[in-house]
Amino acid sequence: MNKKIISFSLIAIIVVAGSIVVFNLFNRSSEKTVTKVDAILIKATPEEIVKQSDGIIIGTVESLQVVKAPSDLRTNEDDIVTNANILVEKYLFNPKNLSLPKVTVQTIGGTIDNKTMISEDSPIFQKGEKVIVFLHQKNDTTFTVYGWSQGKYTILNDKLADNQNERDIFKSIFGKEMTITEFEKQIELLVLSIKK
Amino acid sequence: MSLNKKNIITKNITILFVISIALVVFSILTTPLTTKAYSYAGHKWSSYPVSVDVSDASFPSSWTTALAGGMSTWNGASSPFYFNVGNSGHQVTCSNNGNNGAPAITTTTYSGGIILDCDINFNTYYSWSTSGGSTSLDVQSVVTHELGHWLKLNDLNGGSDTEKTMYGSIYFGETKKRSLDTDDLNGINAIYP
Questions:
Q1: Which residue of A has its CA nearest to B166?
Q2: Pick from A145, B76, B94, B115: most CB atoms within 10 A?
Q3: What is the C-alpha separation between B50 and A18, in angstroms, rounded?
Q4: ipTM of the complex
Q5: Helix or strand or coil: residue B114?
Q6: Looking at residue B74, what is its pLDDT?
Q7: What is the pLDDT of residue B34?
Q8: Using an 8 Å Cβ cutoff, are B126 and B135 in contact?
Q9: What is the C-alpha R_g of chain A?
Q10: Which residues 100-119 on chain A approach chain B with CB closer than 8 angstroms?
Q11: Nearest chain A alpha carbon to B56
Q12: Residues A62-81, buried b or exposed e (16+ Cβ, 10 A)?
C-alpha cells in the first residue's frame, strides 16, 4: 500500500514539474513583441542639469495613462508612452514662469495589446509617488524628463532616490546622497549662480 | 520498518533530489545574466553577421569611417559575432529631437528572446564631431556604445563603470568609449561565445 502511495506521489510530482517546464518553454516561444529603448545620455553636472531644464518641480503622481504617440526615433512607427499626471506642489526652478497646477510628464514605456515598450534609461513613475522632476517642455502642458533617468528622483521619508540605480545616478551628478531640504538648498544656490 | 521499505524510500528521495537539482539548473540557465561587470538584457541575434544599414538619407556620409571604426572595435573581440554594412533595414538615422539630454538612442524589437530589429537614431540638436572636438559629441564613441546595445549589453551607471564603453552617459569631447574595457569584451564574449 505504502509503495503504491509513494510511487503515485512521485509520478504526480514529475507530472507537475514537467508541466511547469513545458508551460515556461511555451510561454517563452510565444512571447509578445517587445521594443526596448536604450539611450546614451549627456553626462549631467549640477549646473548643466539645472540650466538646461525648463523647470524643476516637486509633486505627487496622481494618475498614469499608457497611450500611443508618434515616434521621434523610428520612421512609420508609434511609440508606447506613459503619461504621468503630476500635481505640482512646488516649482524649485521656473525659468518659463509656468503656473500649471498639474503637469503631464511623458516617458517611454507601457503595454498596449500585444506590444510592449520598455526603457531602462527612461524614468518610471508610480501612482501616489512623490517626486522631483527636471522638466523638458514638449508643448504647452506636456513635458518629458530632461536627461531621462538623470532627471527624476523619488522622495521617500524626506530622502531622495529610493533605489540603487537612482542613488548611483544622483551621486554621480551631485556627489553625495541628500535629504530633500539639502537638495532644495543646493538648487537654490545653483539657480542664483546661473542668474549671475 | 523493513529493509525493502527503506530501500524504496531512499530510492524515491534520490529521484526527487535529482529532479530538484535539474529544475534549479534549468532555472539558472533560463534567467537573464546580470553581473556588476557588464549587464546583459537577455535576448540575442539568432545569427550573424548583423548588417548595419546606413542607406537612410539623413545619415551623413562623412560619418561612415566613424561608424566603421565602431563596428571594427566590436569585431575585434574574440567572439565570432561580427557587424558589417548592408541593406538590412537595421537603420542608422538622424533627426532633431530637441534638447532632451539624449544624443543617441537604440531601439530593439524582439520576441521570444530573439532580436527582430535594431535601429540607432542620432539627435542632431547636439553638435557632433568625427575628430574628437572638445565641444562636440564624438560620433565613433557613441556608435561604439550604441552597437553595444545591439549586442544587448545594458547601460552601466555605477562609480566603477565610468571607463567602460557601456557606461550610460558621455561628456562633450569624450572619446574613450571608442575602445572597449575588459568588461565590455567579457560581455560580447559571454553572449556570443
A1: A40
A2: A145
A3: 36
A4: 0.81
A5: strand
A6: 98
A7: 45
A8: no
A9: 23
A10: none
A11: A75
A12: eebeeeeeebbbbeeeebbb
Sign of the C-alpha dihedral computed for residues B118, B124, B128 and B134 taken in this order: negative
Q: Beta A115-118 vs A110-112: how paired, if at all?
A: antiparallel
What does B124-187 look like in DSSP terms, one character per residue?
A: TTS-EESS--TTSEEHHHHHHHHHHHHTTBPPB-SGGGTTSTTBSEE-TT--GGGS--HHHHHH
Q: What is the pLDDT of residues A150-172, one digit of tens each?
A: 999 999 988 887 788 888 889 98
B149 touches chain A (CB under 8 A): yes
Q: How far is CA A82 from the centre of its chain?
A: 9
The reply to whether B34 touches chain A by the CB within 8 Å rule is no
CB contact under 8 A, A75 and B171: no
* Distance (Å, whole) CA B109 – CA B41: 12
Peptide bond into B49 cis (omega under 30): yes
Q: Which single residue is written with the C-alpha cell 509578445?
A: A32
Longest dimension (CA), chain A: 90
B contacts of A42 (beta carbons < 8 Å): 101-103, 126, 137, 169-172
Judging by beta carbons within 10 Å of its beta carbon (0-12, 13-18, 19+), is residue B71 exposed, middle or buried? buried
Query: What's the CA gap between B20 and A142, in Å, rounded?
Result: 52
